[in-house]
Structure formats: C-alpha cells, structure tokens
Write a structure and sequence with these properties.
The complex is a heterodimer of chains A (341) and B (199). Chain A has 2 domains: 12-133 and 301-336, Aspartate/ornithine carbamoyltransferase (Rossmann fold), CATH 3.40.50; 135-299, 3-Layer(aba) Sandwich (Rossmann fold), CATH 3.40.50.1370. The radius of gyration of chain A is 20 Å and the shape is globular. Chain A is built from 13 helices and 9 strands. Chain A has helices spanning 12-28, 53-65, 86-96, 110-117, 135-153, 177-188, 217-222, 235-238, 246-253, 257-267, 286-289, 296-315, 321-324; strands at 43-48, 69-74, 100-105, 123-129, 166-170, 192-196, 212-214, 227-230, 271-273. In chain A, helix 2 (53-65) links the parallel strand 1 (43-48) and strand 2 (69-74). With 341 residues, chain A is α/β, with parallel strands linked by helices. Chain B has 199 residues and is of the alpha/beta class. Chain B has a single domain (15-161), classed as 3-Layer(aba) Sandwich (Rossmann fold), CATH 3.40.50.2020. Helices cover 26% and strands 24% of the residues of chain B. The chains are: A alpha/beta (341), B alpha/beta (199).
Chain lengths: 341, 199
C-alpha cells in the first residue's frame, strides 16, 4: 500500500490488515504512556482545503501517538487564498520535509490526482474529497461494526471479516462520501448493505451499487440489521427541495425513540453508528443518541486507532518510492530522491 | 516435518525443547526464590507459546504461580529499529496480566536470541507499560552475534553459528500441528531473509 485514496480500490486483505493493526493501536489509548515511537522523525502534513475540525484532530492525534511531527495547513487564510496551485503547495510542503500528506479537499478526486501526479513522493491519505470518498471514516465504521458484532457473539474480532453481517445506512446518500466509502468497504468485507433514504437523496447510479435500496425506514428496520448507520443531514440541505421539512424528515427517516425501542426489541443488541456531528431531533432523537447502543464515541476513538494503523502501514513499509511510481512520468526532481525514508 | 537435507540438521528435538523449558522453569524459580510478583511475557510469535509452556511448568513447580493470570504477550512491532527497511507489519496482540508490570519481575520469553535488537525493542515496549522491579530474559536458543549489549538470564541451548546460517524454531500452535514435529533446525544454506523467528 502506497496511498489510501478510496475504499473502492482497497482489497479485502489490505482492509483487514488495517483493521487488525487498528485493534492493537486502540490498546495504546488505554495505557500509561499513550505513545509509540514508530514514526519518530517522520512528518505528517494535514492539508485541509475544507474545514473539518474532527477529522483533522483525529489525524493529528493519530500521528502524534506514533511520535510523528505534525504540520497543519488550512487553505483558508494561506497562500492558497492568494492563488497558489495544489502542485506548488504540496511541493513546498515536501521541501519542508513532509513524508505524508493527509488531504481534505472540496473537489472529488483531488487526492487521487495528487497521488498520480508525480508532484511528490509523499504518501497521500484521502481525508475526504468532495462527494467522492472518505476512506478512513469507512474503516473506523467497519472497525466499530466488527467489534460490536464480535462482542455480541463473544469472539475475538481480529482476523475476521464482516461476512453475514447486515448493515443499514440511512440518510443523505446523494451527497455523502461517507456512505460511498462505506458501501464499497462493507461490500469488500462481505457484509450485506442496505440503504434507506428519500428518493431525492439517492444518486441515480444507485442501481449499479452492491446494495438493496429501501424508501421506508420501518420496513428496513423490520428486517433486523446488525448495525444501523445514521448519516448527518447537512443544514444546507434542509432548505433545499430534497424533503419538505426537518420535522418531516425526522418522522419518516429519523431514528426516533419509538423506532429505536421497536428495533432493540427485535434484535437485542444492535449497533447504532453516527459519523457526527449529530443533529439531535433530526436524523436521530436525543434519547437514541444517548442510548447504550449508540457507538458514536467509540467511533471517535476507533477513528484515531484506524488513522494510526493507516499511517503506520503507509509510512513504515519498505517502499522504494521511485520504483513504486514507475507508471508515472519521472519527475524532474532527482536531487531530492536517494535514500528511502 | 521438512525433509533433512545435507544443509540442514536438527539441533533440538521436541523432547529436547521440553527438557530445556523444564530446566529454565526451575532456574527461574531458583533465581527468583519463589514466584511472588513474577510475570512472563512472550514476544510474538514464538515467544508466546514458549511463555505459556514455561508458565504451566512454573505452576507445577510452585502451585502458587497462577499461569492463567501471570502469563501474557508483548508485541514489539512498533518499537523495532528497522521499520522502513522491511514491509510494514501488522502488530500482534499485547496482553499484559491484570496486575500490570509495575514492581513485577518480568521474564521476557523469546525463541532465538541473535542480534539483541528484538530484546532492546522489548525493553522499550515494556517501559511504556510501566516500571517493573526487574526484567529477565529467557530464550530457547542463543545463537550469538550480538549487536547490542544484551545477555540472556536463562538459555535453553547455546548454539554456536555463523552469520550465514539460519536457525529455525518449529513449535506446535505456530509452525506445525503435531507436537512430534517440533524442532530447532539449523540451515547452512543461507542467511535468514524473513526473520524466521530470529531475534
């Protein structure tokens, strides 16, 4: 693995390697010394063209727990607002000594563009690109689902995939990179995926996805999925014509107290996931958000573990960076190449 | 069992391994004057079953030793000094006994002592978990060629080797299914590439 750009391109073996590594990484947060020396002397740059405090802090915590140096670069108020190109920004960061670039960008495909460009030798981690993908979020969701299923069945989650596990994703699928990344990853790991959304919030290509589609949440919950993932309804969509009103959305597609009680009665111990931040009273009721079945805080800590695993696997491998990049035209930067990092 | 070739020879059989572990268990009890505050941590992968077997013997020698509660594992993947020169590894589980390592006498257990770098990493990993009263080292095979000032307290077999040789430990649960097939094999064909359990 050189980069982490999407879950669509992530094979089952690599995904399991990340999840199994994350299992061990999460033990570090419970220790007296919450730090590993693994990436000492490496530099990770968080390059954020879009605000995202949660994701940035999570990547920052992950890099710091592995003893890497972290530089945070927010496009707002930087040279980017003066018109600097991505190429110049990234080459500047590399000249400062970056070994990995964690990039959040408003344009779909931005991370893949950077990785394929030959502009940099850095490992590229996609931290969300437009409405395309958010692979580390999907990996942390998969870790959360795998753990809660293993806990329920009383077995060790390590080494197991999600065969036979049924996951329901509810909400704004159309604009959600989290949903896309989750669909591909859960499918790769062998899970069955269901989507529930108002028809206006489903992409028209959804028929080609490896999922079953519902328009009715009660009907979908009646099938007794093992885990339910509630997506955030973004404020800017509420005024749009996607659904009549927030109250109407909550009534039809929200996880209300009654729905949760009904669902818990049916399946016993489900896992409720939410990527945060939650709109209490819209996609999830306050009581549902605080219920013991809701794993939102586990997801946050699993996020750090998964990002530690990704940074470890990308940065401590034995890549010969130049030969790895053979398909791309050799950049005219030979002077900085030489010793593997 | 892999066929013997002119280049390989078995230096310890399964029975030899058993006897060495029994002797090491007695040595540990003798050196420690009992089993109070004693915990065993195996270094994955082969150190883990070795630690478990040492623990079983210790509880037979002194029933006060609770093998279930006092044997664990200590992964050193994240503490290696050769990250970046080999493929990134998935760490194995670290399981520390509930009492923790503070003020305990920790016996690190591994299969082969070679450069000493694994043990160095193990000491670093251990110090992040707490502050043991003392740390001892027990290995099944000491093959020499230390690159760091590390010495084992308990050795199953001292095995003079050249750097060009490769020492392979085959244990039930890790490498072979049948206890009968356990062995320590020396291969003169070439140096170890993948590690082969050598430390």
């Amino acid at each position: 693995m050189r980069h982490l750009l999407s879950t669509a391109e992530l094979g089952a073996a690599d995904a399991l390697r990340i999840l199994d590594t994350a299992e061990e990484m999460s033990a570090v947060s419970g220790r007296q010394v919450k730090k590993l020396p693994t990436l000492r002397g490496r530099t990770v740059v968080n390059l954020f063209y879009e605000d995202s405090t949660r994701t940035r802090i999570s990547f920052e915590a992950a890099a710091k727990r592995l003893s890497a140096d972290v530089m945070n670069f927010a496009a707002k108020g930087s040279s980017v607002s003066k018109g600097e190109s991505l190429k110049d920004t990234v080459q500047t960061l590399e000249a400062i000594g970056a070994d990995a670039v964690v990039m959040r960008h408003w344009a779909s495909g931005a991370a893949a563009r950077l990785a394929a460009s030959g502009w940099t030798d850095c490992a590229v981690v996609n931290a969300g690109d437009g409405t395309h993908e958010h692979p580390t979020q999907a990996l942390l969701d998969a870790l959360t689902v795998r753990r809660s299923v293993a806990e329920r069945d009383g077995r060790d989650p390590r080494g197991t995939d999600l065969t036979g596990v049924d996951v329901l994703i509810v909400g704004d699928i159309l604009h959600s990179r989290v949903a896309r990344s989750n669909v591909w990853l859960l499918h790769t790991l062998g899970a069955t995926v269901g989507l529930v959304a108002p028809p206006t919030l489903l992409p028209h290509t959804v028929e080609t996805w490896p999922v079953r589609v519902h328009y009715d949440l009660d009907e979908a919950l009646a099938a007794g999925p093992d885990a339910v993932m509630m997506l955030r309804v973004q404020a800017e969509r509420m005024g749009g014509s996607y659904f009549p009103s927030a109250a109407e959305y909550a009534r039809r597609w929200g996880l209300t107290d009654e729905r949760l009680a009904d669902y818990v009665r049916r399946v016993g111990s489900p896992a409720i996931l939410h990527p945060g931040p939650m709109n209490r009273g819209v996609e999830i009721s306050s009581a549902a958000a605080d219920s013991p079945h809701t794993r939102a805080l586990d997801q946050v800590s699993h996020g750090v573990a998964v990002r530690m695993a990704v940074l470890h696997l990308l940065l401590s491998g034995d890549h010969d960076r130049r030969t790895d990049r053979a398909p791309h035209p050799a950049p005219d930067r030979a002077s900085t190449d030489g010793s593997p990092r | 069992m892999a066929a013997e070739s002119p280049l390989t020879s078995t230096v310890m059989t399964g029975a030899d391994i058993d006897r060495a572990l029994t002797r090491i268990a007695h040595e540990v009890v003798e050196a420690h004057r009992g089993v109070d505050d004693l915990i065993l941590l195996g270094i994955p992968r082969r150190g883990v079953p070795l630690a478990r077997r040492l623990g079983e013997r210790l509880s037979r020698i002194d029933p006060q030793f609770d093998a279930e509660a006092c044997v664990g594992s200590l992964d050193i993947t994240m503490y290696r000094d050769d990250l970046g020169s080999r493929a990134a590894r998935v760490p194995e589980p670290t399981r520390v006994p509930d009492r923790g390592v503070d003020d305990a006498v920790v016996v690190l257990v591994d299969d082969v002592l070679y450069s000493g770098r694994t043990v160095r990493a193990g000491l670093d990993a251990l110090s992040d978990l707490g502050r043991p009263r003392a740390v001892r080292l027990a290995v099944l095979v000491d093959r020499g060629h230390r690159e760091l000032p590390v010495r084992a307290d308990h050795v199953g077999k001292n095995l003079p080797t050249s750097r060009g040789e490769r020492v392979t430990v085959r244990l039930a649960d890790v490498d072979v299914t049948d206890v009968e097939d356990e062995a320590v094999v020396i291969d003169r064909g070439g140096p170890s590439q993948a590690g082969g359990g050598e430390a």
